[in-house]
Amino acid sequence: MPVVSIEHLSKVYAPQFSWRQRLRGATPAPGLRALDDVSLAIEPGEFFGLLGPNGAGKTTLISVLAGLTRATSGRVSVCGYDVQTQYAQARRALGIVPQELVFDPFFTVRETLRFQSGYFGLRHNDDWIDEILASLGLADKADTNMRALSGGMKRRVLVAQALVHRPPVIVLDEPTAGVDVDLRRTLWEFIVKLNEQGHTVLLTTHYLEEAEALCERVAMLKGGRVVALDRTAALVERVGGADLEEAFVRIMRGENGWDDRRAPAGVEAEELA
Ligand SMILES: Nc1ncnc2c1ncn2[C@@H]1O[C@H](COP(=O)(O)OP(=O)(O)OP(=O)(O)O)[C@@H](O)[C@H]1O
User: What is the ipTM, given to two decimal places?
Assistant: First the structure.
């Protein structure tokens, strides 16, 4: 059974429609189709890459997976749990490292990780917290206040937060954007170790050399649609080119016809929330 199952997933964002426009009786513009009939399955223990240019729909897909955004249609499950109807179980199976640096400035690193453990009902988690801190090069920052950390250190804490409950599926949304070589190495060593221990990893990144080195399989999104889905090496060979980056460029340039990303006529804003 796949650990992540995505079946015919579509997401249309409602258009911005002001009260003034409403009162004037204006017709809402069609919504934006961020995901269009996406289907894919990720098997246990895979290191899977979700690739695509800016605005392709990667973060939207992760938001649906995390239960933060409601799908317009389709079904998504994690470890067999439906992300909408069995939200708590599905969320517990996921460790999500978000793209944006979100943190509480009032707590130390250790307090932040203890609180995160508490959200998952884990009260005596310090041994694992210490192991994560050491593995991410954060041991000497455990008692430092979050607001006193550099951007790269904050990102390490985000990774640590995602792992406190030992989730079977780890989702990393552009985790190395703007971080130094040291963090990249530390992060990948740790994530590869977790993957070897059986954790499934879903990674989105614009660093295609990282994706090529790490991901056994990749899916490429363009305009919300899956335009390629294959084992990384097989895809590079089939498309031609020296590496995944060249294959990516060829696939993105070669695909046409996905330009109309607007919702079909007749889709009302209210249906799209
Ligand atoms: N809350 C929202 N409301 C309306 N439109 C949105 C919302 N979130 C994302 N979008 C739009 O949906 C499309 C897909 O965005 P998304 O963030 O999923 O892309 P992405 O592949 O993660 O891009 P990036 O690589 O830049 O992070 C974009 O056109 C974006 O502007």
Answer: 0.98
